[in-house]
Structures are given as C-alpha cells and as structure tokens.
Specification:
By secondary structure, the protein is of the alpha/beta class. The chain has seven helices and 26 strands. The two termini are 37 Å apart. 38% of the residues are buried. The structure holds adenosine monophosphate and magnesium ion. The site of adenosine monophosphate (AMP) has 20 residues, from helix 3.
Length: 405
C-alpha cells in the first residue's frame, strides 16, 4: 500500500462517523456538553422594565429644567415593586434591579441628586427619557433562540440558560472510545518498572485527549505482544457495552512484534487504509472491527498524539454533532528558518507566543523525536509543513494547529 495523503485519509475517516443519539440532562450537568438541538428562552428577561442604577424614578418631563424638586412617594427595591403611580411632580426611591413603577420613564442615579429632607429629592442633573432603565425583554424574549444545536456549552451559555429558566438541556450522548495499549514493555503508571520496561503513558495521554474533546475513554488495559493476550482483549472488547470507536496503541508497524493487523485480521478486521503520508505517525491503521470503526495508533507518544489530533478528534466532534470539527488552525510567523520538507505532511511540535501586535510567533522544538513527551507536553501548537514545502525563512507565514491550552 502506498502512503495516503492526510486530507484524503481524513475524508475517509470522517465518512465513517455520524452524530450519536441525544439525551436530556440537568442544566447543572451540562458544562462542556454539546447541544443536540437549539434551545429557546422559557421567559422574557428582564421580565419588567428594571432600574439599572440606585437612584430615583420619575417622569422625564419633570426634570427638563434642573435642579428640580420632586416629592418622594415610595420605594422600589429589587424584588418588590412600588404599588402606586408616579404622578407629575413625584418620584420613587429605586434600587438596581427594582421594577420601574408605572408612570415613571426615567431613572436618575443617586450621585446626581440631593435630599433636602425625608420626603423630598432634588435632581441636580437631568437626563433624557428612558435613561438608566433596562426595558422588559432587553436581554431576550420568551421563545427566542438562545443556543444553536452543535454548541459546546461554556459557563457563559449555562448562566444565560439559567436566566432563561431552562432547567434541562438536550445534548448528544458522549462517544465511548475503547483504548487498548499493546506491548510487552509496558507497565501501568504507579507500578514498578523492571529494567526493560517503560510506563504506559499513551493510555492516559489518549484518555485525557478524549475527555478534553467530549468523549468517555473505556480502558481495556494492556495486551502483551502475543496472540493469546490480544485475543483475551478482543473478547473483553466484545463483552463491553456500546463502543463507538475502538483505538489500539502500538503494534501498528511492520516489526516482528507488531501484531495488530495480523491478530485482529483473524477476528474480522477490515482495513480501510494503512500508512499515511504524515510525520510523525506514518503507520496508522484505519478500519472496521467488531461492527464499528477502529483506529490503530502507532506507539510512540508524539506519533500517537499527532494521529489522534488529526483523526480521532474530528471523529469525536462528528459523533457529538459539533458545529466545528477538528483542532482549530491558525497562522503564525516563523521565529527561525525551517528546511524544505519531504514527501510526508509534517506536524512539528512547536510553541508560539504573541507579540505586542497580537501576531503569533512560532518556534519549532529543536529535536523532533516522536518518543519525547517532554517536548510534546510543552508544545502549544503543531507547525504544519505540507508535503514538499520549500525551505521557509524567519518571518514567513505558516499554518499551525492549536492544541488544547
Ligand atoms: P510500537 O508502535 O508498538 O512499535 O511502539 C513504538 C514505540 O512506542 C516503542 O518504543 C514503544 O515502547 C513505545 N510505546 C508503545 N506503546 C506505548 C504506550 N502505550 N505508552 C508509551 N510508549 C509506548
Ligand atoms: Mg509495541
């Protein structure tokens, strides 16, 4: 099989996924979830004309010439309206959020008034009609579309929906992603590593990336590099309830111990493509297994991560029905020269800072070793170099893929 271009691979992957079912959840559980439908205001906000200031409510006609002296006829704090009318020559003491009494059309802030006595207010500086009043429905009206389907809910959306008295939200169910690590050398984090062993970092790298993108990781543990161990994990996968995407890590390449294609192949793996023109991450497998999509990630952490950002993250977003799919891209100016690129699309681990003009200035990590987690952890973007891109010099504009902050 020849190497498949990244864009073509992405198109093929995206075709295999569609939006999952929706579920109704409490608004206070909805942070980070993706709306399945549009949501509409259940009430009008504010529900009445409300004061935007602590001050006095009166008729604008009465304060055309200032100072003007008015008779105080009552109070309207937040949560309690003044029952009477504001007639010509009178005013009501009002507080922020208080309902503007009938007859009044203007609020003058406290700072622009004097109180000669208990029953009188003197307005020192006037204002035009309507000043300091938030009219009914100024924020939103009952039935108004507040949030479109496909929106990832933030604290700000949730605050607005609470104000609109929306107690439950229709969201897309979280995609369940099964993760199977493979390798004789792996131990679980917190264990004691033997002389030839390393910690299974990819499991937590991937499960965290899945959570960051709205999914639920389902850990199938570590399969050893032998048929029996892999078959035990295949049985575990089959016994696990509803998996939307099956991810294997490691064993995807051509080495003697790379058994994924061979063993899964004996159990029905249908390979859609294998090997992408990407660096790092060339040996990624995409296929169908156990009646669902399967991604076979390479084992080196940076390779696994770059492939996951490029293919697993868009798959998750499609399953969630998100308005925007995939990691966001941006433009940046090179902080240094970069050499010409080879035949594979390169995703260099990199770090950008913003200069005083708000432009992004990007520096590639000096050593692009796909086994290095220390450089991956401190990257905040991937510097994208298309196949056969010519050498680029300091100050040139390049594309970057933004990573989760
Ligand atoms: P493989 O793709 O299985 O040939 O693995 C390539 C490299 O990645 C090897 O050095 C493995 O030790 C390493 N590796 C594989 N799986 C993991 C994992 N889950 N966590 C950390 N490193 C891994
Ligand atoms: Mg291996």
């Amino acid at each position: 099989m020849s190497l498949i271009p990244v864009d073509q691979a992405l198109e093929i992957v995206c075709r295999e996924f569609s939006r999952l079912e929706s579920e109704e959840i409490a608004l206070d559980q909805a942070l980070g979830r993706t709306t399945a439908t549009a949501h509409f205001a259940a009430i009008t906000q504010p529900p009445f004309d409300a004061s935007a200031m602590d001050g006095y409510a009166m008729r604008a006609d009465d304060i055309a010439n200032c100072p003007a002296t008015l008779k105080l006829v009552g109070e309207a704090p937040a949560g309690k309206s003044h029952s009477g009318m504001v007639l010509p020559g009178t005013a009501v003491r009002i507080f922020t959020g208080g309902p503007v009494p009938t007859g009044a059309d203007t609020v003058i802030m406290q700072e622009n008034t004097e109180r000669p006595d208990e029953a009188t207010v003197r307005i020192m500086t006037g204002a035009e009609k309507g000043r300091n009043i938030r009219p009914r429905g100024n924020d939103f009206s009952e039935g108004q579309n507040l949030v479109d389907g496909g929106t990832v809910l933030t604290s700000r959306h949730i605050g607005m929906m609470a104000a609109a008295n929306i107690p439950t939200v229709s969201v897309t169910r979280k995609p369940r992603i099964a993760l199977l690590s493979t390798g004789d050398e792996l131990i679980t984090v917190g264990g004691t590593a033997g002389p030839d062993q390393i910690v299974n970092s990819n499991n937590l790298l991937m499960s965290s990336l899945i959570r960051e993108n709205g999914g639920v990781p389902v850990d199938l543990g570590i399969a050893r590099d032998n048929q029996a161990s892999l078959e035990e994990k295949i049985a575990l996968l089959k016994a696990t309830e509803k998996i939307d995407l099956f991810i294997t890590i490691g064993g995807a390449s051509v080495g003697d111990h790379d058994l994924i294609q061979k063993i899964l192949g004996q159990h029905g793996l249908e390979v859609i493509f294998w090997k992408i023109a990407i660096r790092p991450g060339k040996p990624m497998i995409f296929g169908r297994f156990n009646n669902g999509p399967m991604i076979g990630l390479p084992g080196n952490p940076a390779s696994a991560y770059v492939c996951a950002v490029n293919f697993m993250v868009p798959a998750l977003h499609i399953m969630l029905g998100r308005e925007t799919v995939g990691a966001p891209q941006s433009r940046a100016l090179l902080a240094h020269d970069v050499p010409e690129n080879g035949a594979r699309q390169d995703y260099m681990r990199a770090h950008y800072v913003e200069n005083t003009d708000g432009e992004k200035i990007v520096t590639a990590t000096p050593r692009q070793d796909s086994a290095k987690l220390s450089t991956l952890a401190h990257a905040n973007c991937l510097l994208l170099r298309p196949p056969h891109a010519p050498a680029a010099t300091k100050g040139e504009k390049v594309k970057i893929v933004l990573l989760t902050p």
